[in-house]
Specification:
little secondary structure; Pectate Lyase C-like; four-stranded parallel beta sheet; two-stranded parallel sheet; 1 helix; elongated
Length: 160
C-alpha cells in the first residue's frame, strides 16, 4: 500500500466518490455486498487487488480496471460499458448479465470465469485467455476475438 493512502471500505469509497475522487490507485480497497448497485462510473481502479469483491449491479462504465485483480469477483448485472479491463485477472469471476459494450478486455486472464447472457458488442478481447471459461448466450456483435483460442473454453455457445 502506498504511504498515506489508507484502506477504504464500502461507505468510505462511496464518500470519496461523492467528493469527486475518481483515482483510487494506490489505495487498498475492501468491497463487500453492502456496495451493490452503487454508481462508480469513471473510477480508476487500475492495478488494484479486488479479488473476491462483490460488484454486483454496480455502475463501472468507463472505469479503468487495467491490470486489476478481480479473481472470483461477482460482477453479475454490472455496467462495464466502455471500461478498460485490459490485462485484468478475472479467474473464476462471475459475469452474468453484464454490459461490456465497447469494453477493452485485451489480454485479460479469464480462466474458469463465467460470461453468460452478457452484452459484449464492440468489445475487444484480443489475446484474452478463456481456458475453461463458460461463454454462452452473449451478444457478440462486432466483438474482436483476434488471438482468442475458443477451443480452450469450457463451453462456447454463440447466440444466433
Amino acid at each position: 500500500m502506498t504511504a498515506g493512502k489508507p484502506l477504504l471500505k464500502n461507505q468510505e469509497i462511496l464518500d470519496c466518490y461523492a467528493n469527486g475522487i475518481r483515482d483510487f490507485t494506490g489505495y487498498e480497497l475492501y468491497i463487500s455486498d453492502d456496495i451493490i448497485g452503487a454508481d462508480l462510473s469513471g473510477v480508476d481502479f487500475s492495478e488494484l487487488e479486488l479479488s473476491d469483491s462483490y460488484l454486483e449491479n454496480i455502475n463501472l462504465s468507463g472505469a479503468n480496471l487495467r491490470g486489476a485483480g478481480l479473481n472470483s469477483a461477482f460482477l453479475d448485472g454490472a455496467n462495464l460499458r466502455g471500461a478498460n479491463l485490459s490485462e485484468a485477472r478475472l479467474s473464476r469471476a462471475s459475469l452474468w448479465n453484464v454490459d461490456l459494450t465497447g469494453a477493452n478486455l485485451s489480454n485479460a486472464d479469464l480462466p474458469s470465469a463465467e460470461i453468460v447472457k452478457s452484452n459484449l458488442s464492440n468489445a475487444n478481447l484480443t489475446g484474452a485467455n478463456v481456458a475453461r471459461t463458460l461463454i454462452e448466450q452473449n451478444n457478440l456483435t462486432h466483438t474482436n476475438l483476434t488471438g482468442v483460442n475458443l477451443q480452450e473454453a469450457l463451453r462456447f455457445v454463440c447466440n444466433s
